[in-house]
Specification:
The complex is a heterodimer of chains A (184) and B (245).
Chain A: H1 2-6, H2 11-31, H3 34-50, H4 62-83, H5 108-126, H6 129-140, H7 145-152, H8 156-170
Helix pairs in contact in A: 2-3, 2-4, 3-4, 4-7, 6-7, 6-8, 7-8
Chain B: H1 11-23, H2 29-57, H3 83-103, H4 114-138, H5 153-173, H6 182-202, H7 210-235
Helix pairs in contact in B: 2-5, 3-4, 3-6, 4-6, 4-7, 5-6, 5-7, 6-7
Classes of the chains: A mainly alpha (184), B mainly alpha (245).
Chain lengths: 184, 245
């Protein structure tokens, strides 16, 4: 991104290759629509291109890109909610990113894995927004606590507490006490 | 993270984004910096115009402009030597610190935390008032006022007028850049523009009465902070960019 900001147009492809898959997966998970995710991803990259001249040398790109994508996604979801009646909200089970139905009977292990995934999705949907976002960024996206805290505009301590509570709500055995050191 | 095709944007999307980056991207850092400096310089030059108009061209507009040795407008005694120099010199340094704290984003494109920015917003008028009132106390000048200037309407007007162009420049240069706390950033920008105008007004205003300072000097900063928060929420927030196709 430093090279792109300095004027090397070819460097943008590297920026794209590093960011696009992660951002797209994040957006698709929340929007439940490939088209909407691509639209939001496009606007995210347009904002990145527009900020080229003011990019701070050496600044981390990933938390910044995630913050832009998240901001655009929240605005888009709010607009959609205003336009649609409430009873049309998707249930956590309608996940277009899930594997397509097969006519073959699924093995028990696969069926159980799908049920577990749906249960986790349901618990995540019931969680307060702050905890869910923290959990998704740290546990699902693999971001560091510091990066996730920057994206959410909070402190690292507050973020760790949210992740800890989210872990507890999901009944994970490996929940880490926020008083302990970082866990990425 | 799964690597299936469904979890990746399409190849056509990538090609479109690369084309946009080549043809529609903003200027690179070197060019952008030149225009940023030009815009800020122009904004501060424009800011001086109301100052000259209100204090020199139309010195009696709203209320009389007080001078260091002028006893004709109701001053009970001469303004002490060094009062204006000390107060405006110190407020200049404080204003530069405030501008740096409010506008500098550190090493992150996401900038400072909202708690940090709100601290700047709250403490700036307090510190500037304390500096000005403290030095007025030192010169035994806090209870001397001059008729129509007592309420501070002229200082209020000049402060707001001189702060408009710097604030507009700050907001324009960072338009669409804050995904997390655009209102807090806007408020900090408003307050830093107010701190700059405080310096200009301080060079001409010798009145040290607390009520005059609160109305004529502190109130404009509060107004600018609120205006900055409202404008920042609108202008600084990240929004979808119009499709360049």
């Amino acid at each position: 991104m430093d090279r792109y900001a300095a004027g090397d147009d070819a460097a943008f492809e590297e920026v794209y290759d590093l960011l696009a898959p992660r951002l797209f997966a994040f957006l698709q998970k929340h929007t439940r629509s490939r088209e909407k995710a691509e639209d939001l991803l496009q606007h995210t990259f347009l904002n990145i291109c527009r900020a080229r001249g003011t990019f701070i040398k050496g600044a981390p790109v990933l938390p910044w890109a995630f913050a832009i994508a998240r901001c655009l996604m929240i605005d888009a979801i709010r607009r959609d909610r205003k336009e649609r009646p409430r009873h049309e909200d998707d249930s956590p089970h309608d996940d277009p990113a899930a594997e397509p139905h097969s006519h073959e009977p699924a093995p028990d292990a696969t069926l159980q894995a799908r049920q577990t995934a749906r249960e986790i999705e349901a618990r995540l949907a019931r969680m307060p927004d702050l905890q869910r976002e923290a959990f998704e960024l740290v546990r699902l996206q693999g971001l560091s606590n510091a990066d996730a805290a920057k994206i959410l505009g909070t402190t690292v301590t507050a973020l760790k507490l949210r992740v800890f509570r989210a872990d507890q709500a999901l009944g994970r055995g490996c929940a880490v006490d926020p008083q302990d050191g970082d866990e990425q | 993270m799964t690597g299936t095709k469904d979890s990746q944007p399409s190849a056509e999307f990538k090609a479109r984004m690369l084309a946009v980056a080549r043809t529609k991207a903003s200027p690179p850092r070197r060019v952008a910096r030149f225009w940023q400096i030009a815009m800020l310089g122009g904004a501060f030059l424009i800011a001086v115009v109301p100052y000259i108009v209100f204090f020199h061209v139309l010195p009696d507009f709203i209320s009389p402009t007080l001078t260091g040795r002028d006893l004709a407008h109701g001053l009970t005694r001469e303004v002490p030597n060094g009062l204006l120099e000390w107060t405006s010199g110190g407020s200049f340094l404080l204003a530069m610190i405030v501008v740096w704290l409010a506008l500098n984003r550190g090493h992150s494109m996401l900038g400072r935390t909202s708690a940090f920015l709100l601290s700047v917003v709250i403490f700036t008028p307090v510190v500037l008032f304390a500096w000005r009132y403290g030095w007025s106390l030192h010169f035994d000048w806090t209870f001397t006022w001059a008729g129509r200037s007592w309420w501070g309407w002229k200082c209020l007007s000049v402060s707001l007028a001189t702060a408009l162009s710097p604030m507009a420049a700050f907001l324009t240069l960072r338009q669409g850049s804050d995904p997390n706390h655009p209102a807090a950033t806007g408020a900090a920008m408003g307050v830093s523009a107010g701190a700059c105008s405080w310096v200009l007004v301080d060079m001409r205003c010798p009145v040290g009465a607390p009520l005059h300072l609160l109305i004529g000097h502190v109130l404009p900063i509060v107004i600018l902070g609120i205006a900055g928060a409202i404008l920042g929420r609108w202008l600084l927030a990240v929004r979808p960019v119009r499709d360049p196709r």
